[in-house]
Amino acid sequence: MGGCGLILAVAVAVLPAAVSAQTSPEDFALRARSVAGAIPLLRPGQFNCTIKPLRVVEVTSAITGVAARVLVRPGQQVAAGDPLVELDAAMARAELALGEARASDDSALRASILRRDGLARKEERLARGLARGAVSPADHDDAALELALAAADVERQKAALEMAALDLAKTRIAVENTLIAAPVAGMIGEDLIDPGEGTSAGPLATIYVNQPLRVEAFVPSSALPDFVAAARHDIVVNDDVVHPLPVRFDYAAQLADLASGTISVFFTLDAPEVLPGSKCLIAGLPEAGSALPGSGPQNDEGTRYDN
């Protein structure tokens, strides 16, 4: 029989649990060729799909700096708020100490207030003297001008302290931003910064949000209305027809792919054991008790009945 006989023999050995007494010779040949890798196992109402992360988040830094420590590794699961990377904060901490000193130093303000109050008393005395004719108007005008300038200096010193407080708040935020935390929960990808690298080179880390997963189905345009209107949708992952998984409809793309004549329909999948990149088939089912085409209940011996 040659190579063809060997492939068929392998297919027969692999498929006994998937074949029942109700399986036709045509179905059996279809499954054998599928296992042998000749063609995909597609039945009416089934469509190819892919499994992807729900989101891919590239984590960047709000400030320019150099990575001092990397606190995670590729493949690690993180929660939102977990620290990922610590930047070199020596310069930021020095600026923070300087900002705290400037914001707390009110000596110039206190001196300007004393000078203003002293000039106010002087102007009051000269005003009384002017009323009695003992002081010339010019002397009183000079005193009033000095008082106005001193009052303006007080306001200027107050504004300087307010600016120092704002600069201090900005510096504190910069110090806090030297510790980069995960914005979402997910798995750390391989694109991860190394200690000593600068933040301007690209993302510090990539987080793959895999719970839930996103399933993209490629549905012919003519089949889209019936497919979307189905009561529920199930997928078969990596040819495991015995254990189909339910998915939740999310949305359908607004434009079709002209080359393939299909429209992408998106679902979400709650299945921690499934990895992104797994191949799958999807079908829309008319009611809750229906089974995915090509899968079905098992008898007591574990043999699956075809639909």
UniProtKB/TrEMBL annotation:
Cross-referenced SUPFAM superfamilies: HlyD-like secretion proteins
Residues annotated as transmembrane: none
Keyword ATP-binding in record: no
Ranges of residues in domain Multidrug resistance protein MdtA-like barrel-sandwich hybrid: 55-207
A GO cellular component annotation in the UniProt record: efflux pump complex
Gene3D superfamilies, alphabetized: 2.40.30.170, 2.40.50.100, Helix hairpin bin (1.10.287.470)
The keyword Thylakoid is annotated on this UniProt entry: no
Extent of the signal sequence: 1-21
Keywords tagged on the record: Signal
GO molecular function list: efflux transmembrane transporter activity
PANTHER family documented for this protein: HLYD FAMILY OF SECRETION PROTEINS, MULTIDRUG RESISTANCE PROTEIN MDTA
Protein name: Multidrug resistance protein MdtA-like barrel-sandwich hybrid domain-containing protein
